[in-house]
Write a structure and sequence with these properties.
Elements (H helix, E strand, L loop, with lengths): L10 E7 L3 H9 L7 E6 L7 E5 L2 E5 L1 H4 L2 E5 H6 L1 H6 L5 H5 L3 H16 L1 E8 L5 H9 L3 E2 L11 E7 L2 E7 L11 H13 L3 E7 L3 H14 L3 E6 L1 H7 L2 E2 L1 H8 L3 E3 L8 H12 L15 H15 L2 H4 L4 H9 L3 H7 L5 H19 L3 H20 E2 L7 H10 L5 H19 L1 H21 L4 H18 L2 H17 L1 H15 L7 H6 L4 H6 L7 H10 L9 H11 L4 H27 L19 H35 L9 H6 L2 H13 L6 H9 L5 H11 L8 H7 L4 H13 L4 H11 L2 H29 L1
Parallel strand pairs: 6-9, 6-10, 10-11, 11-13
Antiparallel strand pairs: 1-2, 1-5, 2-3, 3-4, 7-8, 8-9, 12-14
Helix pairs in contact: 9-18, 11-18, 13-15, 13-17, 20-23, 21-22, 22-30, 22-34, 23-30, 27-29, 28-29, 28-35, 28-36, 30-34, 32-33, 33-34, 36-38, 37-38
Bound molecules: guanosine-5'-diphosphate (GDP) and magnesium ion.
């Protein structure tokens, strides 16, 4: 009997909650657990939801939800004495004794007996050994029949094991849970409509990659699953090695090796079925298969629209529905059409499919399949030792080189070197053109605008400040082009893969590597991309060290100083700064993982999506998105900061001094700078450099625009080289200044990103404080020791 069948005033006891994981979790959290008494307060036939009282609370459930909760009533308990005896848990004497106390006992026993019936469905590919498992487990208790109007065989049987009655159903073999064949549809409907308590996913160990495809779909459906790793004998004789415990941990599914010809492993398998049924299985957890950035974006968008319908959430995992909708699943489409907002859902679905086609250059359906195989690939790469993984041909050839034990690292470093080299050298040409353009603009404005503060503001404030940083647009575009190239081609995932071992030594995960590389572009998207790291600890640490990856906004600062002071070995100086940033990140990661961020790491799969020829369109779009972002920053924060800095440097009493020098020394800016001068003096910086640092807190580009404003005097042009030369510091102090800029205070946008991704301001504050302190110490030591030596 289920809860929706109870009438107003009737009382019952909960036996079990069925349905998919998300639903069960919610219901159990509301207090609907085995053995709890529940009373129906109001159940009118046409009314939804129904009101209940449980543990003194009043709650309402939809009829649909109540249908998933098995209960027994007190009346039932009285009439079901024989059933209790049948299971041998109540003696005759007890059974025939009356009295209130015994009624309770009977009720409790009956709950126990009913609860101890586990409905188990066998799901797996054809010929993986389901029927053999079924036969060996259920022995003689079987009967064969056709079910559900389709001509597919589904055998039912049962067995007793350790106080449990386990009902088994041998479902037809399928490779997938799409709606293409009657078998697939049948299995899927069985899982959704009949809601077995546990699914045994039978997997042919000698053909594991293909078999796991079905497993990924079970994961999407969020059903409690135990895997029977069948044909284990064949795996053993083949000489391949599979670390199935690790694989189970990665998938969140307990795995038990079985040989259904001999009966090996069957009892252990049943033990795990019981454990997972009672929520006592440690390995079991619900994971999300990461389908990659673009697909995940589409999935969660569609999912949001589906989830507006409370009614459907009790039956289906909304994530599963969203994935299926993007896979053009006809049946799911029909199901969605019954929802009140179906038009919105389908419209959004179509939009996303169109977007995906443009973005990934393949239809969403095959993109999802590819992503799932990428997930399987990654999971097996970490657990399965076999040279002959049946990968698609091209991917195998590429992988054998790019993730090769010997070639992998050199190729990666070569690529990184090319990336930085191109950023710095190729970027110089367009940089010159932009500098020229900015100068032309300056001339025109100087010539045609009437003299006065307004002209000074435009020329020195806006053109000086914004012009000072806009010239770096080409560098930044080139850097982003390379990052887009790595991401779109699938190489980034491989880079993460070969870095995995190294990252583990830092208490991180291979996946942390991607945000770190992206950090060279901009820390903000880098921190947002830590979302793909499932493990909270690794995620937090990654967020905290990303700011040491020298972002492109810091590049202008380095270029100014190296161009002026290190003209002959600029590249070396630049490389050294990046390298120091990385080194600090490494040490910080170690320290954090040891002392600061608590908790154990949970392993997860690193997907290896198939290689894709990146399309020039997508590459340019991804690159340009960043470029546009940079330009918006120019028009926004950098422009405003430039004007503010100009204002503070221009006033008060601009025309009251004999020399420009004297004027500047008496400006607001100078007064502010002089306040902090004592703090930065030991580092060798004067107040002007100090003002640069303060203004850089908003965005690091502003350091350069500020310096350009401070050092440009009345309409003259300050080229990059020129600006650097005007700043009166020696090489050692200049390097200390660059070090400080590298390490100190991540910009405001980065802090906000850390806050929103970690959920706490405390991590953002921590990041701001420790990085600034560290910057001071490093710059101090460098400046002091440097001057001693040289
Ligand atoms: P089903 O299609 O999934 O129901 O698979 P069957 O149970 O019909 O099994 C297919 C074949 O695999 C049969 O010939 C079985 O004897 C064989 N088989 C089943 N389990 C094992 C096993 O653990 N090891 C080996 N070597 N063969 C098995
Ligand atoms: Mg069979």
């Amino acid at each position: 009997m289920n809860l929706s069948q109870l009438e107003t005033g009737q009382r019952g006891v909960i036996v079990k909650v069925k349905g998919h994981g998300g639903f069960r979790k919610r219901i159990v959290e509301m207090g609907f657990v085995k053995g709890k008494h529940i009373e129906v307060l109001l159940n009118a036939p046409l009314m939804d939801p129904v009101k209940y009282q449980i543990m003194g609370y009043e709650v309402s459930l939809r009829r649909e939800e109540a249908r998933q909760i098995d209960v027994i009533t007190e009346e039932e308990a009285l009439t079901k004495v024989p059933e209790i005896n049948f299971y041998g848990t109540l003696t005759d004497k007890e059974a025939h004794d009356d009295g209130l106390h015994l009624q309770q006992t009977k009720l409790n026993r009956l709950v126990e007996v009913r609860h101890n019936v586990i409905n188990v469905a066998l799901v797996g590919n054809p010929n993986c050994g389901k029927t053999s498992l079924f036969n060996i487990a259920s022995g003689a208790h079987e009967h064969v029949g056709n079910y559900g109007g389709v001509t597919v065989d589904a055998k039912r049987g049962f067995l007793y094991y350790k106080n449990y009655r386990i009902n088994l159903i041998d479902l037809p073999g399928t490779y997938s849970l799409s709606a293409y064949t009657p078998e697939e549809l049948y299995v899927r409907r069985y899982i959704i409509k009949k809601t077995p308590d546990v699914v045994i996913n039978v997997v042919d160990a000698s053909n594991i990659e293909r078999n796991l495809y079905l497993t990924t779909q079970l994961i999407d459906m969020n059903v409690r699953t135990v895997m029977a790793l069948n044909m284990y004998d064949e795996l053993q004789t083949s000489g391949n090695k599979l670390d199935y415990e690790q694989l189970g941990t990665l998938l969140g599914i307990p795995i038990e090796p079985t040989i259904c010809k001999s009966g090996f492993g069957i009892n252990e398998l049943l033990d795990r079925v019981i454990a997972i049924y009672n929520d006592q299985e440690k390995v079991a957890r619900h994971i999300h298969i990461n389908h990659g950035k673009e697909l995940e974006r589409s999935i969660s968008r569609v999912q949001r629209y589906i989830a507006e319908n409370e009614s459907i959430r009790s039956r289906f995992s909304t994530r599963f529905l969203a994935i299926k909708l993007l896979e053009n699943d006809e049946r799911i489409n029909m199901r969605i059409r019954k929802l009140p907002n179906w038009e919105d859902i389908l419209r959004v679905g179509d939009e996303e499919k169109k977007r995906l086609r443009k973005e990934l250059h393949s239809d969403s359906e095959s993109a999802i399949t590819d992503a799932k195989y990428g997930f399987i690939d990654g999971a097996l790469r970490e657990t399965f030792k076999n040279e002959h993984l049946q990968k698609r041909h091209l991917t195998r050839i590429f992988d054998s080189v790019l993730t090769n034990r010997y070639f992998g690292f050199p190729i990666f470093f070569l690529f990184m070197f090319l990336m930085f080299q191109a950023t710095f050298t190729l970027g110089n040409y367009p940089m010159d053109w932009i500098t020229w353009l900015v100068d032309q603009l300056r001339h025109v404005v100087s010539e045609y605008m009437p003299l006065g503060p307004l002209k000074d503001m435009v020329v020195d404030g806006i053109i000086g400040g914004v012009g000072g940083v806009i010239v770096f647009l080409p560098n930044i575009l080139i850097l982003y082009f390379f990052i887009a190239l790595m991401e779109d081609s699938g190489y980034m995932a491989r880079a993460a893969f070969i870095m995995d071992k190294l990252m583990h030594k830092l208490g991180l995960h291979g996946k942390s590597f991607i945000p770190l590389v992206m950090g060279f572009g901009c820390n903000v998207p880098a921190i947002m991309s830590t979302r793909t790291i499932e493990d909270r600890k690794s995620r937090l640490i990654t967020m905290l060290i990303v700011p040491f990856m020298s972002c492109s906004a810091r590049l202008p600062i380095y270029i100014i100083f190296t161009a002026a002071l290190f003209p002959n070995n600029g590249a070396m100086v630049l490389m050294s700064l990046y390298f120091i940033g990385i080194t600090i990140a490494v040490f910080a990661a170690k320290i954090f993982s040891k002392w600061l961020v608590k908790g154990k790491s949970t392993p997860f799969v690193m997907e290896l999506p198939p290689y894709r020829m990146p399309t020039s369109k997508a590459l340019f779009r991804h690159t340009w998105q960043r470029g546009a972002q940079y330009l918006r920053k120019m028009g926004g924060i950098i422009m405003i900061a430039s004007i503010v800095i100009w204002f503070l440097g221009y006033y008060p009493n601009h025309d009251g001094y004999s020399s420009a020098q004297e004027q500047q020394e008496n400006s607001y800016l100078a007064s502010m700078g002089k306040v902090i001068e004592p703090i930065i003096k030991p580092l060798g910086f004067d107040w002007k450099l100090g003002v640069g640092l303060i203004s850089g807190a908003g965005a690091k580009e502003v350091v350069v625009s500020t310096l350009s404003v401070i050092y440009s005097q009345s309409g003259d042009e300050v080229g990059q080289q020129e600006l650097g030369k005007r700043i009166p510091i020696d090489r050692i102090t200049a390097y200390a200044y660059m070090l400080f800029c590298l390490i100190y205070f991540p910009c405001i946008a980065t802090l906000v990103a850390i806050k929103s991704e970690s959920g706490h301001w405390k991590w953002a504050y921590l990041s701001a404080v420790y990085s600034t302190s560290l910057a001071w110490i490093v710059a101090f030591l460098f400046n002091q020791i440097g001057h001693l030596i040289v």
